TrEMBL record:
InterPro entries: Acylphosphatase (IPR020456), Acylphosphatase-like_dom (IPR001792), Acylphosphatase-like_dom_sf (IPR036046)
GO molecular function, one term: acylphosphatase activity
Keywords: Hydrolase
Protein name as annotated: Acylphosphatase
Coiled-coil intervals: none
SUPFAM superfamilies for this protein: Acylphosphatase/BLUF domain-like
Catalysis performed (reactions): an acyl phosphate + H2O = a carboxylate + phosphate + H(+)
Enzyme Commission identifier(s): 3.6.1.7
Gene3D superfamilies for the chain: 3.30.70.100
Organism the protein comes from: Floridaenema aerugineum BLCC-F46
Amino acid sequence: MEKQSSSERVRAHVFITGTVHGVGYRLATWDKANQWGIGGWVEEIPDGRVEAVFEGNKELVEAIIRWCYRGSPDAVVKTVTVEYEKLQGLKDFIIRRPSELSIKNEPKDVKVKTINILLFVHGVIPLNSKFSETKLYDLLWEPVKKQHKLSERIDDIISVNWGHYLADTEEDRLDEKLHKAEEFIANQLNLKAQSQKITNNSLQPWWRSLLHPLQNLIWSQGIGAAIYYSGIEGKIALQLAVYSQILDLLEKYRHQIERNLAKKEATIKIRLHAISSGLGTNIVNDFLHGLFYQTGNQSNHNPELDKEPTIANSPILAEEKRETVERYLFWRTATQKKHLEIGSIVTMASQLPLLLLSSQRVVNTLANQDTLSIDEIGIPEQTQEIIWKVFYDINDLSAFPISSLFGGHPAIEDIAIEMSNNYYNYPNYWENEVIHTHVAELLNRRVIS
């Protein structure tokens, strides 16, 4: 028999048995099929089975059939029977409700619109960098958005700026003062001038020639900013700057979400796709943890894990920006009610393993020889699909893989890349073509409508 092309379109008629009624199996199937661009339908049938038809790319149809063996989190699947049939040209995927069944408290048609929001959060921008955060984000987004029609499928973009002094602002934010402080220290120390005072001769130890580059590296790599974020005042200042910018954009969707919460129904949901680098990775991780940790497995079984102060209950923050606190608390409620979810995460040059040690909650977890729970940042524990891609240059002193801290969870993929070993060329990650390819592929899978 001639081998079929993976690009061939096929139609699969599938029957699933087991505990598959009343456990969200149809909705999960609808979500997965729409996510992968598969046409067809799914319905519950009176004999206790779920029936589905999938039409689309052969490789994707086979993938969703494999997924059917797992299904929704509460399902217990016994068998999956498949028959291939003649294509009927189905493009959309719907939930069918047979007339024989009277299903209470469920809408007749699923009309939930997903709002896909792309979030960019940069790391430390070096003092001598000519790149603004906007130009930095464009290095990645311009080539990525041309693939898979992503420019048409992303509804909103949040381009965050923090720590990089903006001359046109009326009043310095707290985080902008960090940039000025670091610049002042660098000028006062004048490391280059100090090194020139040392008489060059062959008797000097070999390692002395490394001191000046390493000292400059401290500032170019933003170690000062990492120390700032490790303290309570610095952490609040940066969180205020980043969180308020994210919440400002989300505010436009708040009224509709509030109506959904009041009616206990969903007409829209927010799917957040976060791309960050360096210290920005830690800020994004803390943002997500604050939203999702109450639904995490570890916190459910160990209330002690909930005691770490977050932006929402910090007394310092409450005095500084009550509006940010109120907005953040609202979106925490929205995440618990499934109105805001994680679409995908991309991190580059992550310092997360280092900065996590500033949290007593994390220290306690790791000291007990336990790994972190991935669902505390919004990624379902049971998922087998890659949702979080981590890029690190093996020559970068402050970039680390992450998956081992989360028990090697299959939702995380660590990707080692090699770039120019130039710590002053900060845009390297953002303009790397290998990263562009991976990001486009990830977004194509995880952006749904």
